[in-house]
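Supplementary Text 2. Reproducibility record for the structural model of the 279-residue chain.

All settings were left at their defaults, and a single model was retained for analysis rather than an ensemble. We include the record here because the model underlies the residue-level annotations in Supplementary Table 4.
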Amino acid sequence: MNTALLRLLALPLLFAALPAAAQPAGLPEALRGAWAAGDCAAPKAVLALSARSAVRIDPEGPTRLWRFAAIAPLADWTLGTATGPEAPRLLLRGTADALETAEPDPKLRDAALPGTPAIQAWRRCATLPLPFVMNHAEGVAMLPALEVIEAGCTGAPRACAEAIVAAGDVSRDGKLAAAEIGRLTRGFAWMAAAFDGGPAEALGAATGAGTVAGLLAGRLAVEAMDYDGDGRISAEEMVVDTASFGSHPGSAAGQPFRLEGVMEGAGMLRGLLEGLLNR
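Retained model, structure tokens:
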């Protein structure tokens, strides 16, 4: 199964032992959404902003992805400090229709900001070129979806599982089907390419390559955790054993089997099932 998907579906367990972390303030809501540099019909670059993420997609240059660990006001700017080497920063200021951004020199301390960085102007566009949207829509949608998952995965495993379902539940039926898991997988593939700084065409290629992997990952995940056989995974199925961890009473009436015997029995069961499936 896709490694990123395994990590996603394991989040309820991974986060259960972690203390709740304070969530930073998000980017101003008026700034969130998609912005274009230049003409909306043929943008020189596109900037997508969510609560704690920003991605710049440049048809002629490397992609930039910021995932903000800290966001704070700075004079008439908003300063976002991202995770990763050198903690890259992004300055933003604007209104619902106009935006300016700047990337400070990494050597400049926060106390000296904003300094005199080169400023990039952006405009809000009602629509963007269809080929661009088709190549990048799923990936960009993964940014706020991942934030929903991270916000839910700061406490109990059940809340984390519910956040994963909420982030991927396109049909709004409260469960994840194979196709919805595949969409999450494709989104992660796009994000990985963006994090690596690949060009725009590499991001689109990553989404395309993730289609087959996402289909397989979705089917395998459903087969592994669909205990009620309805073809979908619920939050309860993801964390079926975590709510009562260590509290099963068991029974004192029997004597322990030899572990080897248990394994032999499991092997016989697997052989029986394989024989039935291969008839």
